[in-house]
Amino acid sequence: MPRSLSCLVVLICLVLVLTGCGRGEAIVVIALHPSNPNIVYVATNDYIYKSRDGGHTWDNLSHGMSHSRVISMAIDPVYPATIYAGTKGDAVYKSYDGGQRWVSLRAGLDDVTISSVVNQFIFDPANNARLFAATTMGVFETQDGGEHWQKRMDGMKEVLMVVTIAMDTVRPDILYAGTSGGVYKSVNQGARWEKINNGLVSPDELKSSRALGVTVIAADTFTPDTVYAATLSGMYKSTDAGQSWERIAQSLPDQMISAMLLDRASKDVLYVASRNGIHKSGDGGATWKAMNEGLATLNIRSLAQSPTDPQIFYVGTNGSGLYRSQDAGGKWEPLSSVRSADGG
Fold it and tell me: Where are the beta strands (DSSP E) in 12-161?
């Protein structure tokens, strides 16, 4: 099997794993209310759940949705009762009432068929009706709150899927996309993309356009030219806005990263999650420390930091539910099982 096809197969398998195809209580997505710390949304393999008391009790919110798995969620930062849900196989749903009712949004998403996954949403900070979606069929943009979507793939040659997308929070015209063909950058909000793989793969492999599976990408708020990318072959860092990359975090026990988060309150502090738990770096990825006290499993699927208290983190596992830390990952405590919402 050619290396490019082999890497693509691995990336597809990883996407399937990360969409929560295993057994047990897998917390695929965590979405936190921007101003009310008591409101927490999670998606499991089966349903969306909402807690109004910080994770002690849960309500099933999947009424009106298909049985397609929810892979991504986003809460409108201006009107937080408005929620978007991206699925595996049934495009996008939207709720206007905090998840009580859902409507399907498919206009322009004809390519997002039963075989596709909506992996991530990001909002334009200047316009909450404008979102970008990373899907296994490419990047899509809406300018009217999801009523209509347009594909934004100009310049992305030989890309079969977009797994992750990030925005420069200081210069929101700049977007980064992690794809099956490496990292791409746009300086005009997705109108045109350019491949920026220098240092991610060798020059020979660059010329052959070998697929490079990028699983997570994040732009640094404190230092805008610093970008982190997690791939199937480890983590990389750019300090020149993606023009060149260097390998970091080779000491991590698992190089296949499932989630990555840059601390919104502390410069050079980042967290990564993998099948070997949570690791934290306080020096921009040079050194790492395991942060797993209290976790019953180290197989981590999702990670979120509270918008209201930077010391509070949530971790979703691939088998033992949801955990919370109130001391920036120093110790984790299990929260009530979301299955209790179904009487299970």
Answer: 25-26, 29-32, 40-43, 48-51, 59-60, 70-75, 83-87, 92-95, 103-105, 118-124, 127-135, 138-142, 150-151
